[in-house]
Amino acid sequence: MFHDCRGLEITATSSDAITAFDQTVDSYLGIKPEAAPNLKATFEADPEMPMAHTMKSYFFMLMATGPLKERSRKAAADAAKFAQAATKREQMHAEAATHWSHGRKGAALATWETILEEEPRDILALRLAHHGHFYEGDGQNLRDTVTRRMFAWNSDMAGYGYVKGMQAFGFEETHNYDAALLAGHEAVEINGHDAWAIHAVAHVHEMRDEATAGIDWIKKNKVGWRSSNNFRNHVQWHQMLMYLDQQDYAEVLRQYDEELWDAESDEYLDLVNDAAVLLRLELHGQDVGDRWQALAEKCKDHTTDQALAFIDVHHAISLSSVPGDDVKVLLDAMESYASESSDDNAEITGAIGLPLAHALVAHRAGDHGAVVDLLMPLRYRFHLLGGSHAQRDLFAMVLINSAMASGRTNVAKMLISERLARAPQNAWNLNCAREIGVAV
Ligand SMILES: [Fe+2]
């Protein structure tokens, strides 16, 4: 029996496999491009290592595209087979991978939580639970799945900084910004390349409407977040939101073309970032030219993925921004999936994803009254889609834009009043307020 770098028992045929697996987990936590090559090295050292197969299954699911679900299921089945003589913890990881790859996200989350009750230092289960709660829109558990493990951690342990980075993001998403800054700064001091922690602090500046401080923070830590995989584009996206807040539209468009847009990328987070910033630019009154065309071309390949409702609604934005029937293909696929699949995500697709996608398509078509009718009853449940407050804020902006454009002035005034309470100096809020006659 071997032990990993945190002292957990782990099954393999050689210490080389353990070292390679530790490096795989470390690069996953750091969101680094080395994660896949490190997993490959693990397999080369031990082709039957149970946790390597489980990790393979997890990685496929983390990529959140339809065709990879089957490959994830196959890897989970291999993990279960090779884990028969392994520890209970490793067997439970294989079970979690099986649940997740079969659409049972809730059962996977419950399994990671059970693993963590037994072994709070299982940082892989911790990060996956953190990720899972994020895409459940469960901010309290996003924060607490990390915080309730802290009794078992100290700063001498490998990965402690990553734990603090996760905790920072949990604090931020539950509006405890001072605690988020403390934990985030501690994490970045431990590891200046911890992109998740850098990102958590950027979120605090976004939520506090501190564009200048946020841009400074992201610039100061550029070497750190640029070393991550395509997640670096998401941090870039955060910086662009801050330039939007400063109404520096030329800089946002320059960054879109020169930094954010990756013609070769088909990663879901890139497609989400791109759609979310282009629509924001338009809501700020900017012309984004033909940029939707290239983005929609990529989204056409994902109309039947239904990996996450959160992703599908962003594809609805991109596909309805260009001529053609692809957005109808997407909406029909979401409809069939919601009514026919037993996936946990199918329920959210039916309850939130579909009406929101219809609203976003109606917004594009200029049917603003329909947008207000669809979104007013839905807006306090947007979080069930998952994603962050900053990401979902786009839907709130669309609703306000449609309330104004449809002449539902009192509704617009109500919504703008709420936004001004949170961000009284925000340029977009102020411009909307002036336009509809709210005193500022
Ligand atoms: Fe973010």
Can you walk through the features of this model?
There is one protein chain. With 440 residues, this protein is mainly α. The protein has a domain at 263-407. It has helices at 15-29, 35-45, 50-62, 68-82, 88-101, 105-118, 123-136, 139-147, 160-173, 177-190, 195-207, 211-220, 222-226, 231-245, 249-260, 268-283, 291-299, 309-319, 326-340, 344-365, 368-375, 389-405, 409-422, 427-436; strands spanning 2-3, 9-10. The chain has a two-stranded antiparallel ribbon with strand order 1-2. Helix 5 (88-101) runs antiparallel to helix 6, helix 14 packs antiparallel against helix 15 (249-260) and helix 16 packs across helix 18 (309-319). The termini are far apart. The mean pLDDT is 97. Bound molecules: fe (ii) ion. The site of fe (ii) ion has 6 residues, from helix 11 and helix 14. Fe (ii) ion binds at residues 199, 203, 234, 238, 388, 390.
